[in-house]
């Protein structure tokens, strides 16, 4: 039976099954949207924490680092409570939609991007601190310069966030509901189809998810090599 399921999974992939493509497309749309929003917030927050000195900075650092280990189901629950009809944002009607899934993933990924980018930019800032002081740059100008110079390293941060988003299941299933043709992504579909005994679709989605993970790791390695060449050029 397992061999038959594997054969059917390969058939689903080779024939570009519409249901399979729909699930993959939604997964990529949700994850890429969440990563894009997380980069906008996380890079600015990380850079600010790296170079700015203000009251409560250490507390913010601790909060960001602690948020990295927050269980996804807790984030999903908080977003659910906020978007439910009785919640403060219930009037938006976003619960059980891809938008709710994007919000949940954004809240999960932003602390990761902020923490990783803070470390990257802080290390780089130590090299340029004297030069920035002599040029009398503002904080915004420093952040722009550091983000540009650290673009290769920050690309790996973005890919790490994408990997986290694609593998997420706890939060998105709470706020998305795993509704067929609406909020079903790869991870939630694998969980559901496995419980139903539909191993062919689960295996096909698992193979695609594993392939994406390998591609992300290959890109990370390629970017690291390019960054080293750029540094020694």
Characterization of this structure:
The mean pLDDT is 87. The protein has one domain (2-227): MetI-like fold. The N and C termini lie far apart (56 Å). It is 81% helix and 0% strand. The protein has helices spanning 2-14, 18-51, 57-68, 72-83, 98-135, 139-149, 151-167, 170-176, 186-196, 199-232. The chain contains 10 helices and no strands. By secondary structure, the protein is mainly alpha-helical. Helix 2 runs parallel beside helix 5 and helix 7 packs antiparallel against helix 10 (199-232).
Strand content: under 5%
Order of helices and strands, N to C?
A: HHHHHHHHHH
**Basic shape:** globular
**Through-space gap between termini:** 56 Å
Which residues form runs of ≥5 with pLDDT under 50?
Answer: none
Tell me the domain tally.
1
Radius of gyration: 21 Å
Main sheet characteristics: none
CATH topology: MetI-like fold
Structural class: mainly alpha
What's the mean pLDDT score?
A: 87
Helix percentage range = over 70%
CATH class: Mainly Alpha
Write the layout of secondary structure elements.
Elements lengths: L1 H13 L3 H34 L5 H12 L3 H12 L14 H38 L3 H11 L1 H17 L2 H7 L9 H11 L2 H34 L1
Please sum up the structure shown:
The chain is mostly helical and 233 residues long. The protein has helices spanning 2-14, 18-51, 57-68, 72-83, 98-135, 139-149, 151-167, 170-176, 186-196, 199-232.
Keywords:
single chain; 233 residues; mainly alpha; 0% strand; globular
